[in-house]
Structure formats: C-alpha cells, structure tokens
C-alpha cells in the first residue's frame, strides 16, 4: 500500500512538472541505502536499500540507469532511475569499487578498485570485463575526458593522477600531486583536469595535453584549522567560468574562478560536504554532507546556501538526473 | 548478472592471468572485442637513466612478547615487520610508476645476540634507511655507531619518554607516540569530560612506572588531580586459572577502595598482570582508563575513520590477522621513507633528512591530516586515538586545547619543555 502511494506520488510529480522535475540520488555509506530526492520540491521521495557501503555513483548518458558502487559487496548495483528498483548487479566490478565514470557513449564503465590498486573496465550493458589496469595504491578518482580518449584515475596512497589511454588501456602519464588525491574532473572544454588532495588540502590543475601541473590551489580560511580543509568533490558551472570545490571538514564549498584561479567565495554548508551535483538547468548545486547527514542546496546565481534536507547516515555520493 | 555470464567473466579473468603479456599486445589491435585487457605494467615504464634503487633495512630483535591477560588478545611474534612489508608493497607500487625500485632487507636477530655487528653489516653495505624495531638500549647502541652518523633511523617500537628527551639522538626519528603524548591525549579527554579526580593504580613492571609518571605529568599540565595512588602487587590468580574470577571479584574492589573520591581509575599495567580485571570490578562504579579500559593508541582494530577501513582490510587480507599498533608504526615508517624518496627523487640521506625535517614533508596515516616531525626531538606529530575495548571513543587533541603552531603539539613534550640536547 505504502509503495503504491509513493508510486502514485511520483507519477503526480512527474506529470505536474514534466520539464523541470529532477531527481537526486544520494548514497548513504553507513545505511546501505540510496536516498532519492525531488530536486524541485526538495523533498525525499524514498530510500532504497542497496549493497553494502554504497559510495560512488554514475548515471548512464541517457539517464535511465544509475550505477552504484557497493564497496563491501564487491559489486555494482544498477538502478532503474524511473522505478527506483535495482534491476541488476555487476559482480565483475573488481574488489571494493569506490568511484566510477562512464564514457559518453554509455558503453564502458571505469571503476576504481580501492582495495586492489586497480581500475576495472566493464561493459555497461552486460558487465563483461574489458580490462584491468594496475595503478597506484588505493585508487579513487575517475574521470573520462569529454572526447572519450582518456580516463584519469587517482590513487590516494600513491598521491598520483594516472592518465590512461582509453584505446589501449595503457597508462600514458603519472602525475605526482599532493597527499591523498580523491576526485579528478575535466573542465568542460577538456583542457584541464582538476585533482583534489584531501590531506594535502590543495587542488592541482593539470594540463590535459602536457600532463604538467599548471596551477596548485591552496586554501586559507580564517578561523578554520588547516587540517580541516579537505578538498573533495569538484563541479564546473554551466558557463565553465567557475569551479565549485567541496572542502570536507571545513564545512564549506569554495567558488573558484577558472580564469584567474582565485577563490571568489566560500559558502558555508553542512558538515563535511563530499560529492556534489547540479540540478537540470544548473541553477542549484547540491552537496552531500557526510557528518551532518544532510544535503545542502546552493543557489548558483547568489552563491548562497538556501536549504538543507536530512537524508541517510554518512551521505557520500550525490548524482542528479535532470 | 546471470550465472553463465559470471562463469564467462571468471573464465576470462583466468585466461588473462595465465597469458597476460600476449593478450595486452593482442588487444591493442582488437580493442573493442570482448577479450579483456590486463595491463600489469602501468607504463610509461621507468626511465633507465633516472631509475633509482632504494634499500630499507628492517632491523629488529625477536624479544619475548608480554603475555596478554585476556585470552581475547593473541600473541603475535611478527608485529611490526608485517606492517613494514605492507608498507613496502605500497612503496613498490608507487615506485615502479616513476622508476624507483624499493627493497627491504629484513634483519631480525635473537634477543640474546648483540645488535651491533648486524647493524654494522648493514651500514657498511651502504644501507642508510633503517626501520628499528628495537628496545631503547639496543636502539642507542645502533644509533651511536660512528657508521650510523648519517643514517636515518625510524624507531617503531619504544614509547620511552627518555628516548625523546635525555637520550635523544640526531639520527633517530620516532614514529609511535611516547607515553607522555598518550597520557596527555587521555588527560585532555578526561578534562573535557570533567572527570578531574583520578585514582592511579600501577603495576610493578618498570614500564608501569614510566606510564604512571606520564600520567602525573599530564595531571599537572591539564588540571587533573590524583586523589589516591596504589601499587598492585601481582600474585597468582591471573590468566589460565580456572577459578580466577572469584579471586578477581574480591581483590579488585579491595584494590580500588580507600583511594579518595575519584571520577575515574587510571591503571598503569603494561606488564599485563591485572589491568583488564578492573573493568566492572571497581569498588565505586567508575570507568577505567590508562593502559586498559579507555586507552590512548596510534591504531586499533576498531578504527575506521579517514579511510582506515581500507587499511584494515588491506592488512588483514595480506597478513591474515589484525593490524596491531606496531604494525601501523612499521607501515608508517616505510611509507614515510617512500614519501621522502618519491618527493625528492633522491636516496642521499642528507637530502632525505633535510626534507623529512622540513615543512614540506607530510605523510598520510588515516588520521585525516598530514603528519610531520617535530624538529626538536624528531617525534612524529599525530592525533591520538582514544579507544574502548571495542570501539573508538574520541581522538585527541581535544577541542579547546590550543597551540600556536600545531594542535598536536599539545601532546607530549613541546619545544620549550624538551630535554633533547641534540636538536636540529
């Protein structure tokens, strides 16, 4: 009965706002659930049990499927983004999958196997393993380039960003960055890769062509101890002019000019913002706050935090289906 | 995925394990066929002209281990070395990406042997990076060898306060926190809880006295009051006595009587003769802290924050047992050498030493901050875990204990207090 009502409510909300209705998926690392949130009504729709220790998530390019890393179960769960049902699992993910990315054709998924020092590449359709690439210790970050030629993986203990050629699945460059790199993200034009270092407290901006670090961003926040500044998630604004970097235990999101690399604003959010994503028209940015168990909604135009919404325990990843 | 698909996938994985190299070459032509690629060598391979060989020596003695009071704790005779081996495998993994070849010489000799000839062998063969799993006397014997003058010795075993003060040596760095840092970490928490009145009960082992001294110092530093003190004289009735609990149940309340009005019992029992028996057996219903009960440690099997879960898994999978504190120190020591070599691209001990003591050096050890060395005594700065028997309770330094430079310098001997003469 409850399910029926929820289903009905979803139907209504979809029907009433067909163009704008977005859905946020938040992985709750400690709850083994995905919280599903309406990004317009800012209401939790439901919470779906998945495999143990869900962290990284990625949407298929057609937005129909959500791939979820269930680290402690050594598998990916596949969720239908309309029915919110788990429609399958890929046990070929390799051990302890943490973060992942998918190419823009939706063919292959690149998975960081944290416990095993490896990147596993699987076919998105059937989970068949296309390859495994040994990289450094504790792989985490994963980013496919906009032109689908390169995937960048980070390894946390080795403190490197590894550039992997997608055709040959060979590592073509290893770039030493600061301590415990977590997230890699290409700028919209594909010219730079931004890599956050959680313990180093910095962001390395790497030239995607030369593989050289062209800029090293540091953060100083009055009244915040340096060790609490833990850069993690990165997102670029629609026009590409601004980067948003979640600063972990500093409880802030930094807004950085991609032209000057200057920090223009620090937005106070919930505790330990980790991963982030934009809504459909990129007017709002949502952050998953691990230690306050909520999601903060930031208005991109005013750069103000507008609302926080309680979700599950230890929210980690956040992905929005437009 | 279906059962058949699972079988197919495991078949492919099996196939590529047996024929790795061939498939890699082959697949370059057939990228989009279903044959999986296994790229073991994360090329670009080492540049032969730049490649360097890094040798670390693990120098230790197989000292007799203290027998734990509780049967829950197992006796391991390979604590430390196992952590160092895991650390080495990580250095190797990082190193091969940038042309650095790491190896570790394991030199562990019987307790009764003289450590100096073994150390001389290593030093004369050109080894200058040493992980020392040695008690203070042996550690100093090695450090004081003229051949060791430019060596970098990471001590991973002793918590002795004197080694960081009167007995400090310029070539010795300390990975584990000493008794003073641990006592201060505990004291800050007790003060934060407003449990200011402490009853101190010590065992008779020499180290128990050291620990008790550190507690007295911590009380003075942070405003704790030791309202009563006793020494527990060990008699029969400990582990492996079938009827032990009747004795324990009568002895421990007696032991914890007449100690004044205390909020908490602090126990100093590194000899493992009675400490665990105090829990739930005190005369007054009071918590127990110190070497048992609530303990201040650098690592614990229950610790899972800041990605420690990964480390616990990695270690247990490789070694087949839990990671102990000494394993953590061994791991961290080898990682710190790796970090210094990776960042400087050098194996010259003078270059490495300079880097290790600079502000640029930091090593990550699952404490959610980079850690570096204090220049005055070469002690690794670090947050300290406060753990109960089964779960993390807190991490010190506590909120409100301030320091102008590093909050972790509120733990142990800060620069003005240090009695180390051999500073940098």
Core attributes:
heterodimer, A: mainly beta, four-stranded antiparallel sheet, 1 helix, 28 strands, globular, B: 424 residues, alpha/beta, five-stranded parallel sheet, four-stranded parallel sheet, 15 strands, 33% helix, disordered N terminus
Summarize the model shown.
Chain A is mainly beta and 322 residues long. Chain A has one helix at residues 2-16, and strands spanning 23-28, 33-38, 43-49, 54-59, 65-70, 75-80, 86-90, 97-102, 108-113, 118-123, 129-134, 139-144, 150-155, 160-165, 170-176, 181-186, 192-197, 202-207, 213-218, 234-236, 242-246, 252-257, 263-268, 273-278, 284-289, 294-299, 304-310, 315-321. A four-stranded antiparallel β-sheet of chain A has the order 3-2-1-28, with no helix packed on it.
The name of the CATH architecture of chain A is 7 Propeller
State the CATH topology of chain A: Methylamine Dehydrogenase, Chain H
Oligomeric description of these chains: heterodimer
DSSP summary: helix tally of chain B: 11
How much of the polypeptide of chain B forms β-strand, as a percent range? 15-25%
Q: Find the count of extended strands of chain A (DSSP E, 2+ residues).
A: 28
Query: Biggest sheet of chain A: strands side by side, in what order?
Result: 3-2-1-28
Q: What can be said about the biggest beta sheet of chain A?
A: 4 strands, antiparallel
Helix percentage range of chain B: 25-40%
Largest sheet of chain B: 5 strands, parallel
Quote the average pLDDT of chain B: 89
Number of helices of chain A: 1
How would you sum up the global shape of chain B?
globular
Q: What strand line-up does the widest sheet of chain B have?
A: 3-2-4-5-6
Which structural class is indicated by helix and strand composition of chain A?
mainly beta
Structural class of chain B: alpha/beta
CATH superfamily of chain A: YVTN repeat-like/Quinoprotein amine dehydrogenase
Calculate the terminal CA-CA distance of chain B, rounded to whole Å. Answer: 61 Å
Largest interface: A-B, 50 and 41 residues
| Poorly predicted tracts of residues of chain B | 1-34, 40-46
